[in-house]
Design brief:
The complex is a heterodimer. By secondary structure, chain A is mainly alpha-helical. Helices cover about 75% and strands about 0% of the residues of chain A. In chain A, helix 3 crosses helix 13 and helix 5 crosses helix 6. The chains are: A mainly alpha, B alpha/beta.
Chain lengths: ~375, ~500
């Protein structure tokens, strides 16, 4: 009974996400047809390209920051908070880490650790601003984080130009290169950073903390039933603050695979857009660790296939449109499925109770 | 006006409905120009039946006739067109509109797209005279009391031309005096030719006001009787199918150790504009049930929240067993032994979409076996939940189902079970049996009495005056945030309580 229900629930969740994907691709197919491309040809090209050699490596490389960003978003979602500010938290963290880490000299492992911690602190601090606004002043976190994104983007741009930029007179404008001690080791040279392991650790810790600890139970309870959680003695303000800080800390890590593992210096465009894509990945993955891994990879493949689109002179923005449509279909399909499933659960329970009682009733 | 013809005739109505008690083989004949009561326990199928008659859904079988014509209502609009109107238990009025605006909402009289209020007002003035009650048509609904709001709802239905009025539990929200006024209105309506279907589970009221009574049990009509031919006990037995439980049965000896002492407590409203609890002072002793009577919104809710630490206090002290609680967190107060059956089980009692075992663990993670350091023990929590389900006879297919899948009575039993399974010194029970069936009600009363007998101090907030009188050792009345009287339940009647609750009477009795 327990297992059957559990598997049914999983089947419905997975099925729902797959259905949402199919609908999203169908809608984008219509769009492709409208702008004069045969959607079947385009999709076939994408799939063929994704199946080619080294695709998996490239998709994984692209998926790594997405998974982190999705985890950051999911922590908020679990508590009923919508942290749209991952983008801003990521960008601030990556610039400040790139700028400050060049000034520090530490042995290899310590230097990398220093960078990771610094990035997490910066991300958490920026998210904490939205947390404080919500706790102290009741400002909706969606509004606050959107606004903080704009501020962060402006701030990063200004700080980069003012304090950190080197080689401003060349084409290659970036911050000073990090010392080798701060480089994250590559797993496959030039193709995949060892950061995948950090991501795996983060996702496993996320799963353990949220699903297996008292703290995680409080977090989920506050998200599922804020009223009941409050009455049960769970301090809503503390939970809002903690989850915003945790979410921000992970958001701070999003730019690290790129910075420490790949470019070793900040330049414009580094770690941009992950914050928004992470929302889509978290939604598609239903805020669950396994779901985040799978949908992160899917988005990695989508990004990867943008290469072939350009070669065949199909606008690469079609990829962004697909992502956007996925967000919409996921939300709609999930909601519809949830209602249907809830109704079914209620009916099944009522029927089962009646059956139990008929059996128990004396003849 | 009783001419013997039927205003409404339902024959052989059947309706199966997922998750809800079905109707089968319902036969109901309501004579024109009478008050016809429909009684039954919560969950007996009254609402399903009335929704059928009002066109909210279509019956699977059987026929509906209104004034002799067979009717097939596809929606409430059809029902209204045929002269059938419904006054819901929960008022559906917009606070920020005036009475007349609320009434015409959805049927606005207009000329060339411009709202024309004068005609509507004219007709409404006549209608309100005809129901023998004055209603200020230009008053904002927000300024009206419960009784007046109900009258607005009745006017709304009449304005739309209803000849048959369905009133769903109209007295549930009223104090005894307001109930009497409502009955005068109903009599007047019937005298003017309307027909009234009155749904209730309060037998005294039904016996007092109706011309005929139809009893529903387990989804079907079991009898139609005249009030003159039956007494309360018989009617109750028809309704339940067996003997009715009794809230009384006081054989307790109230202890003399003060457990919960509240002194000069002031609590401000959320916007800090006014005092919602004003100088409240009382003590709950061990093995005592202190009842709090009051019309909803007179400070009971804020009082409970203040005791639990969910709401800041402006003045005064709250002590538990000699410990000052003022600066302790909600969690800490729970740890010291305060349990709480909240006002609204859906919003404050349960995680509706979480499995039962997570619901029973909520707030009790520190209990032995449920956690191990920072980790929760799923196995321990499940064992604990199973015990609660067994002990409190919660009807459920298992402990993995989400809480929303249970019926209201069983959800409440789960909440009560959770709260009574903690180490409790003081139990704050707010409407512990609201919306639960008679069987669950009796079980919950038994548990409350058993806890009291074990020495727990109980603060009982209830709108059910018989429950208050039956269970309490003393009854404090709260009016406008002040404790205005402390009464002895042995001598208190619902009418007397009602006088205190409306502020008509104050001071000790």
């Amino acid at each position: 009974m327990k297992n059957r229900q559990k598997w049914q629930g999983i089947a419905i969740t997975v099925g729902g996400s797959l259905l949402a994907l199919v609908i999203a691709f169908a809608i984008c197919g219509v769009f492709l047809a409208l702008i004069g491309h045969n959607p079947f040809t385009v999709y076939r090209q994408m799939i063929n390209y994704d199946l080619s050699r080294d695709s998996f490596l490239d998709a994984t490389k692209r998926a790594v920051p997405l998974m982190l960003s999705a985890t950051a978003v999911a922590i908020g979602f679990k508590m009923g908070l919508f942290n749209i500010g991952v983008e801003g938290q990521t960008r601030l963290a990556v610039l400040l880490t790139a700028g400050i880490a060049t000034q520090i000299h530490l042995p290899a492992i310590l230097h990398v650790t220093f960078c990771l911690v610094l990035a997490m602190v910066v991300g958490a601090a920026w998210a904490g601003v939205a947390g404080i606004l919500k706790v102290k002043r009741g400002v909706n976190e969606v509004i606050a984080t959107i606004m903080l994104n704009y501020i962060a983007i402006g701030l990063v741009s200004w700080m980069f130009d003012t304090f950190f930029v080197v080689g401003a007179d060349t084409l290659n404008v970036k911050t000073k290169e990090l010392p080798r001690s701060a480089w994250f080791p590559q797993l496959v040279k030039g193709k995949l950073t060892g950061f995948v392991f950090i991501v795996l650790v983060v996702i496993v810790v996320f799963w353990v903390v949220v699903w297996k600890t008292k703290f995680g139970f409080h977090l989920r309870s506050s998200g599922m039933g804020p009223g009941a959680a409050r009455v049960a003695g769970i301090n809503p303000k503390k939970m809002i603050m903690t989850s915003m800080l945790l979410s921000g800390a992970i958001a701070g890590l999003v730019g690290m695979p790129g910075l420490l593992g790949d470019s070793h210096a900040y330049r414009r465009g580094l770690a941009e857009g992950y914050g928004f894509d992470g929302i889509a990945v978290a939604l598609l993955g239903r805020n669950h660790p396994a779901g985040i891994v799978v949908s992160g990879l899917l988005f990695g493949f989508l990004d990867h296939s943008s290469g072939i689109l350009q070669v065949n002179s199909i606008p690469r923005s079609i990829i962004d449109i697909i992502k956007g449509v996925i967000v919409l279909t996921v939300v709609i399909v999930n909601e519809a499925l949830k209602r249907w499933h809830n109704r079914r659960t209620q009916q099944a329970s009522a029927a089962m109770i009646t059956a139990i009682e008929l059996e128990a009733a004396p003849a | 006006m009783m001419d013997g013809s039927f205003a409404v005739e339902l024959v052989g109505i059947g309706k199966t409905f997922p998750g809800v008690i079905a109707n089968h083989d319902i036969t109901l004949r309501v004579r024109s120009g009478t008050i016809h009561a429909i009684v039954g326990e919560n969950g007996a199928g009254k609402s399903t039946l009335m929704n059928t008659l009002y066109g909210m859904h279509q019956p699977d079988e059987g026929t509906i006739s209104v004034f002799g014509h067979e009717a097939h209502f596809k929606s409430p609009t059809d029902a209204i067109a045929a002269g059938v109107g419904m006054v819901h238990q929960h008022f559906m009025l917009a606070d920020n509109l005036t009475v007349v605006e609320n009434i015409i909402l959805g049927a606005e009289p207009a000329e060339h797209g411009v709202l024309k209020l004068s005609d509507a007002k004219h007709r409404l003035a006549e209608l309100s005279r005809s129901i023998g009650a004055h209603v200020d048509l230009d008053a904002l609904v927000a300024t009206l009391g419960v009784g007046q709001r109900q009258r607005v709802e009745i006017l709304k239905v009449l304005y739309r031309g209803a000849k048959v009025l369905i009133l769903d539990e109209p007295t549930a929200v009223l104090v005894p005096q307001e109930v009497d006024e409502l009955f005068v209105t109903l009599r007047q309506l019937v005298a003017d030719g309307s027909t009234i279907i009155f749904i209730s589970h309060k037998l005294d009221e039904v016996l007092k006001v109706s011309d005929e009574i139809t009893v529903i049990r387990d989804g079907t009509t079991v009898a139609t009787v005249a009030p003159g031919d039956i007494n309360r006990r018989k009617l109750a037995e028809l309704m339940v199918g067996s003997e009715l439980p009794d809230p009384s049965g006081r054989n307790s000896t109230v202890g003399n150790t003060p457990l919960l002492t509240v002194t000069d407590l002031d609590v401000h409203a959320d916007d800090e504009s006014k005092l919602v609890v004003d100088g409240a002072t009382f003590t709950v002793h061990n093995a005592e049930v202190l009842g709090i009577a009051g019309i909803e919104g007179n400070g009971q809710f804020e009082l409970c929240e203040a005791i639990l630490g969910l709401r800041p206090i402006s003045r005064g002290t709250i002590e538990l067993d000699g410990t000052d609680l003022t600066h302790l967190s909600v969690h800490h107060r729970h740890q010291l032994g305060i349990s709480y059956i909240p006002f609204d089980r859906h919003r404050e009692g349960l995680l509706l979409y979480s499995p039962l075992w997570e619901n029973t663990m909520l707030g009790r993670e520190e209990t032995l076996g449920m956690s191990n350091g920072p980790f929760i023990s799923g196995a321990g929590a499940r064992r604990d939940c199973q015990q609660i389900v067994d002990r409190f006879s919660v009807r459920t297919p298992g402990i993995e189902v989400p809480a929303f899948a249970l019926s209201g009575g069983n959800q409440q039993k789960l909440v009560v079970g959770r709260e009574l399974s903690s180490e409790t010194h003081v139990l704050i029970a707010a409407h512990p049996t609201r919306g639960v069936d008679v069987g669950a009600q009796a079980a919950i009363w038994d548990e409350l009495r058993a806890s009291r007998d074990k020495g727990v101090g109980v603060l009982l907030i209830s709108a059910d005056l018989e429950e208050l009188i039956g269970l309490s050792d003393r009854i404090a009345v709260i009016f406008d945030g002040k404790i205005t009287a402390v009464l002895d339940p042995a001598t208190a009647t619902p009418e007397l309580l009602g006088s205190y609750m409306t502020g008509e009477m104050q001071g000790a009795a």
